[in-house]
Amino acid sequence: MTLHIANAPCSWGVDDPKNPHLPPYQKVLQEAAQAGYRSIELGPWSYLPTDHAKLTADLNQHGLSLVAGTIFDDLVSEANFDYIVTLTHNICRTLSAVPTAVKTHGDNAPAPYLVIIDFGNAERARLAGQVDKAPRLSDADWQRMVQHIITISNIAQHEYGVRPVIHPHAGGCIEFADELEKIVADIPHDGAGLCLDTGHLYYASMDPVASLDKYFDRIDYLHFKDVNQQVFDSALKRELDFFTACAEGVMCPLGTGAIDYPAVRALLTARHYQGWITIEQERDPRNVETSLRDVTASLNYLQSVGF
């Protein structure tokens, strides 16, 4: 296998660019490089510099490239969609103008990627991981979301050469096994690939190894997380929203949680995966002082089990 491993600003608690507790972006870039990563995700729009020359200089200073940008927003409502289109152009324009990740790949499409995540339904967010309690979208809302994803995927792919990948996410409207199966049926692979995330698969009561195997031919890009079982069980029992659970430590360094990464490694070897894997460990940004320790430990662990 030819694998490259990146990280993302969420490992430093960067999810909401308006959060007053975020670390300086220079700290994230410096620590990512110090831990041994050579690529990173863009994170939420406006966290890293939006000026292309400034961002290029900052990435070059730390020997980093961008592997992906992310849309993490309400993809269902019509009222929000003009903003989503503008955001798509901004992210993809940036990915086409700054240093991006090496284009290593097999049958999967190469970097850079636009990671597409629906998030913004308050009831779904509150019931993250609650497969039997979370309400599903109506047919009309689902079809509207599908059309929105198709539209922004076309912008990314045909106007900027950025590969769109759909990411099922805890607390979003594409989360559980039935929704993953449905989105794959509704959007063909030439329109958008998948970015499957081991942590979110586990959070949604799916077996990560079995799910990666089932959807392997649709996967272009991977996210790796690990899940603290004790915190996870407590979060589900108390019906915590996903980010409250993250603040309590539901995501932990790779190799210390519930996910069997040697089995993941064996599957990816057998299926000849070539490409990028991004490690993530969402947290409260007020706990950022352990980020360098944890992202270093996760990378070292993956290397120790053959990644």
The sequence of SSEs as H and E is EHEHEHEHHEHEHHEEHHEHEH
Low-pLDDT parts are none
Oligomer category: single chain
Number of strands: 10
Give the biggest sheet.
Answer: 8 strands, parallel
Distance between the termini: 9 Å
Strand percentage = 15-25%
Q: What is the approximate shape?
A: globular
* Strand order in the sheet with the most strands: 1-10-7-6-5-4-3-2
> What's the pLDDT, averaged over the residues?
97
Radius of gyration: 18 Å
State the secondary-structure class: alpha/beta
Instruction: Specify the number of helices.
Output: 12
Assign a percent range to the helix content. Answer: 40-55%
How would you characterize the overall build of this protein?
With 307 residues, this protein is of the alpha/beta class. Helices cover 41% and strands 15% of the residues. The strands form 2 sheets. It has an 8-stranded parallel β-sheet. Strands 8-9 form a two-stranded antiparallel ribbon. The model has no long low-confidence stretch (mean pLDDT 97).
Q: Any key phrases for this structure?
A:
single chain, 307 residues, alpha/beta, 8-stranded parallel beta sheet, two-stranded antiparallel ribbon, 12 helices, 41% helix
Quick overview of this protein structure:
Helices cover 41% and strands 15% of the residues.
Write the layout of secondary structure elements.
Elements: E1 3-7, H1 25-35, E2 39-41, H2 52-61, E3 65-73, H3 81-95, E4 113-118, H4 122-126, H5 139-160, E5 163-166, H6 177-186, E6 193-197, H7 198-203, H8 208-214, E7 219-224, E8 226-227, H9 229-237, H10 242-247, E9 251-252, H11 261-270, E10 275-279, H12 291-304
Parallel strand pairs: 1-10, 2-3, 3-4, 4-5, 5-6, 6-7, 7-10
Antiparallel strand pairs: 8-9
